[in-house]
Every structure is written in C-alpha cells, then in structure tokens.
Task: structure prediction
Amino acid sequence: MTLIKPFRGLRPAPGRAADVLAPPYDVLDTAEARRRADGKPWSFLHISKAEIDLPEGTDHYDPQVYETAAANMAELIDKGVLQRDGAPRYYVYRLDWGDHAQTGIVAAASVAEYDDGRIKKHEHTRPDKEDDRVRQIEAIGAQTGPVKMAYPEAPDIDAILAAESAGAADIDVVADDGIRHRLWVVADDATIARLTAAFERLPALYIADGHHRSAAASRVSANLHAAGKIGAEDRNDYFLAVAFPHHQVRILDYNRVVRDLGGLSPEAFMEKIATAFSVAPEAAPVRPRKHHEFGLYVAGQWYRLAIDPGRVAADPVGRLDVSVLHDHLIEPFLGISDPRRDKRIDFVGGMRGLEELQRRVDSGEAAAAFSLFPTSLDDLMAVADAGDVMPPKSTWFEPKLADGLVSRLLID
Result:
C-alpha cells in the first residue's frame, strides 16, 4: 500500500457545483443548516446534515438521520447531479480567501499508515462524535468530509500542483462566504505516478482538521475487514483527504472567555496576574504580536500581558500559547483545571474578531476575555512528532474545505 492513491471521485456534474457545495457539517448548527439549504434541493447539507429534512427536534444521532442521508445521496446520484469519474484520479484543490491562497491534492490516504502513525494526529477524539461519523460513512457508503492534512517541505510536489492548476479549473465556485473553491482533475497517468511516488518519499503527513473523520475511517475499515468485505491487502483500505503544503496552511487565533473571576474582584484578579505577567493597559483591543503575549479584556479595559520566557516550559505542548495561558493564569488564578468540560470557559474562533470578545464581556455573558497569538503549523507538527496531543481548542483553521466537492465511495 502507498501513503496516498488516486480514486474515482464522485463530484458535481458540469454546471452543478454551485448547487451542491456546502460548508463542512461541523461548522453549522441544525438551524443554520436549514436556512442555508432552504430552496436548494441539491445542497450537500441534505447529506451532511440530513436532520434538516426531518421534523424539528429530531436528535442528530437518530437512525432516521443516517437513513435520510443515504436516500438523499442516492437521489443526487440517480438524478445525475453527482457523477463519478470513470478511472482513478487525483484532484488539485485551490482555496482563495482574500489575499490568502492554498493549493493541495485531494487523494485517498492510507488507513494502515494512519494506524501505524505515519499519518500523525495531535488531538483526542470524542466517542460520540466518532460514532456519528462511523454511522454516516457506513449508511451512505461513502466518505464525504475530507480530512485536512499538511505535508512537510516538498518542492517537487508543490511544483506539480502548480503546473496542474495553471489552466482553467474543472470546477470554479465562489461560496456564500466569499471563499473561492477551484478543482482540477489530474488524469495523466504519468503525473499520477509522479505524485504517488513523491508522497511515498515523505516521512509523514499531519492531520490538521478532521480527527474524528480519520478515526472513524479507521474503525470503518476494521468493520469491513471483520465482515470480510475487504481483504488484508485490499487497496480500498483508504480514506478521503486533502493535503496542503505546510507553509500554506493558515491557522487563526482561538481565543478564550471566562464566565466569572472565581470570586475575585477585577482589582484582585489583576493583582494576581501581575505576579506572573507584565501588564500594560491599552486603549484599543489587543491582538498579540508574538508568541507568549496575550490580550486581556476585563471591566471595560484592555491589557497586554507578557510572561517571562524563563517561566515557559520547553516541551512541545508546554510551550504552546494555549498551554502557557492555562498553566500560568486560567488554572492557578481561576481554578479551571479541565477546559474540555468546565462550563465556566468558552472558546471563540479568530474569525469572529476581537470585537466579539469585547461584546461578550460588555454584555455580561463573560467576566473576562483573552486573545492569543495563533498556534503555528510548526508547533502542531512538533507536538505530533512527539506523539503528544494539544490542549482543546488550540487551532482554528481557515479557510474551511467544502463538502460535496469530491466524495469517495467506500468500495472503489
């Protein structure tokens, strides 16, 4: 088995991509998905968020949801809205968002290499979300949500992808959020072989976004083996992925708000902070300029915080900004030890801006807000290489991949 392989993609028929493409299933709640799919019978939300076609209040994990997703998928194929390529292909995928662009490859990635650790992860998964993805994949017989990955420095791969995306795209759609999605089909056998070989020379791939989807793919593979549907050497033992050059993957800040100050007054809270950080009042919202610098908004005032570098741990997890803030402020001063479960803390993606942090505090929803410098891809890769996991809500990736652009049937 190779690290990646081409596959027969299931994708929108010519002229249908704008009708089909949808945001990833996990960035919309059901109410928003209903609104986004209203009047769009071919929207991929009818597959990825199939509860929108069932009575309001239907549990997301109800068996009817998966049955409806399967029926909707079958209808899109039967009506010719989705069509499958006749031979295995790679696909070049470019995302344009403002002045940012990233170009990657859509491929089938090896489950065996994921299980063995060559495809590296950096997050824990939740059993309920993992179970949901397993049921979805098995119900519709396809992988539809690609796992977003990064590959380390590989100029030869970058050059091939640039050459393959030099002409007009096979799919070119600007989504409602202004993100442009373009797809080129790589059909030349020699180019396909060059890409396969180039990826085979890489030491690793790194999961950026999609840990539940990759974990679910591994479980589905095991289920297929147990049922005798694929053999030990079956080349269908792969999952849908998009791999981008690591230097193009964009991570935004993932900020924090806390509901209370743990019984402290704002004045007493600031006195405690001053024992561990330098504190400077600021007249405008604070966006950290470097690692280990933080913004704090409390009682109508912004502050810039910085920690003595000598207090920062040297290990890949301990030196992360999210770890420094937690270890030196949130846990010792606010008593929040488990941010994954503690309801006193919430997380705000960088897409919402610093204004959202200030709004939450001014409205009384939160007592204080913290802005952070974004985690870097190098930090993520260092954590994965060490076999560690990152704290919850360490990374916010933008732009998001589209669902429905290319799907992969479970059995080629």
